[in-house]
Amino acid sequence: MNNIISVPRGTQDILPVESRKWQYIENKLRELSNNFCYEEIRTPMFESTELFARGVGETTDIVSKEMYTFLDKSDRSLTLRPEGTAGTVRSYIENKLFAETIKPQKLFYIGPMFRYERKQKGRYRQFVQYGVEVVGEESPMIDAEVISLAYNIYRSFGIENIKVAINSLGNPSERQAYNDAMVKHFETNIEEFCSDCKIRIQKNPMRILDCKIDAGREEITTAPKLLDYLGEKSRAYFDEVTKYLDSLEVKYEVDPNLVRGLDYYTHTAFEIMIDNPEVELKTLCGGGRYNGLVEMLGGPEGEKGIGFALSIERLLLALESENITLPLDDGIDLFIVFMGKATDYAVKLTNDLRLAGFKVQSDYFDKKMKSQMKLADRYKARYTIIIGDKEIEEDKLLVKDMANFSQEEVSLADLELYLEKQLRGE
Ligand code: ATP
Ligand code: MG
Fold first, then answer.
1. What pLDDT does residue 145 have?
2. CA-to-CA distance for 270 and 307, rounded, in angstroms?
3. Interatomic CA distance for residues 42 and 84, integer angstroms
4. Is residue 226 scored above 80 in pLDDT?
5. What does the DSSP assignment read for 172-189?
6. Could you tell me how far CA 38 lies from the centroid of its own chain?
7. 393, containing H or E segment
8. How many angstroms does the Cα of residue 62 sit away from the middle of ligand 2?
9. Each residue of 64-83: pLDDT tens digit?
10. Are 227 and 237 within 8 A, CB to CB?
11. Pairing between β-strand 39-40 and β-strand 105-114 as defined by DSSP bridges
12. 313 ligand 1 Cβ < 6 A
């Protein structure tokens, strides 16, 4: 016998019991996106490596450690996408969406992302992100709308124990002044920090605040606060965003040490966290404004953007830790039990009812009636129909309600309407 081949480390199969949940979640995400007037964009699963190097930033964990990069047969350097913003913005520029009459463009995506990460709970090498990007124009109302969408996604699944952590990263010149202050603050003790932080202090000192290894150090708590370095305009923008969050009843906390992993963020940065001390992995979703990105990727000047991304894997973990079961409908509408010469009739009826929009199954193997009834139970059928020669001759189909075992005789012509009424109350 040959060896079994396992899934690659950090990936998983999603089997039917789980995929029902995924479908439910994805449908809901699409529905909410539609209501907020976001339209779907689908970009390739791999892109030129340069896109991420430029668009995400060389000093980020993603680019410096986590990318699946390979040469194709023509020696092009390609990378499996680790996130969705760079590809979306590339597409926005390449397809001239900035010239559309509706601005900003409000886009969403759902799809797999790939990062070479250490495998841990809630951290996979292939995971599915849902994200939105609003590209073109800027307004504090847009920032608040995006945050409210993210927040209400969790609430729409019944996850109430969440809060938004929010900060402003200012504009590039404010951040420069801040970064200078950060260098001063950290340089005396930088030898005691991890090797990544020693690089961060040179390349992007702000990122030290995001270090998972040095997180507990006193220097981190006492570090200069970005909010103190904001000019009047940036401060006013931030105040407007939080004012709208108040009126949208989004629960948030200003976290002056919140910096996001990606290089291109400006102004609003936020994360959505589980507000439950027993849960270790708290961050469910991250996002923020990236006003410099379009230009950095070769697009026109002055195009603004904001977005967020969340993974469905972490959403599922949150549902689990909050003890929420999704209202999944895992049964079928109807199981058709048949005997004798009724096979042809039953095969045709099964097919017709399926095409009429019902979830219908019947037996393939000439099983005895009792075994067919057992199968109907396993399928969790809400109704069964029992068909024999007599039922066909008299055109009286016996429809049985499996919840209370009541039954009724229905003619073939009336069957669809009858089922419609019973199942959907129509
Ligand atoms: P972290 O600090 O947890 O590594 P990140 O900054 O790398 O997060 P983002 O790039 O902002 O995360 O991705 C947005 C969201 O996608 C995260 O908040 C998280 O919910 C989810 N996510 C990120 N990486 C993974 C992964 N490897 N597996 C599953 N979900 C992930
Ligand atoms: Mg990460």
1. 98
2. 10
3. 10
4. yes
5. HHHHHHHHHHHHHHHHTT
6. 14
7. helix 389-394
8. 7
9. 999 999 999 999 999 999 99
10. no
11. parallel
12. yes
Averaged pLDDT of the chain:
94
130 touches ligand 1 (CB under 6 Å): no
Cβ of residue 263 lying under 6 Å from some atom of ligand 1? no
Ligand 1 and 123: CB distance under 6 A: yes
Assess contact for 50 and 56: CB atoms under 8 A: no
**DSSP 8-state assignment for residue 96:** T
User: In this structure, what token pair is assigned to residue 391?
Assistant: 């039922």
Minimal CA–CA distance to 225: which of 174, 172, 289, 273?
174
Residue to mutate, 56, 68, 123, ligand 1, most ligand atoms under 8 Å from C-beta? 123
**What are the distances in angstroms from CA 117 to CA 9, 274, 413?**
10, 22, 59
Q: How far apart, in whole angstroms, are the C-alpha atoms of residue 113 and residue 343?
A: 47
Q: What is d(CA 306, CA 136) in angstroms, rounded to the nearest whole number? A: 9
CA of 61 to the centre of ligand 2 (A): 7
Sheet holding 266-274, edge to edge: 39-40, 105-114, 126-136, 304-311, 283-289, 266-274, 162-168, 252-254
What pLDDT does residue 210 have?
83
Q: What does the block give as tokens for 366? A: 């000439």
> Ligand 2 centroid vs 284 CA: distance in angstroms?
12
DSSP string, 52-77: HHHHT-TTSHHHHH--EEEE-TT--E
- Answer with the residue of higher pLDDT: 194 or 340: 194
Q: What six digits make up the tokens of 419?
A: 């089922």
Taken as a whole, the chain contains a residue count of 426
Residue type at position 419: L
pTM of the model: 0.93
Cβ of 311 closer than 6 Å to ligand 1, yes or no, is yes
pLDDT of residue 261: 63
**What's the distance, Cα to Cα, between the start and end of the chain in Å?**
55
Percent of the chain with pLDDT over 90: 80
Q: Is the CB of 83 under 6 A from ligand 1?
A: yes
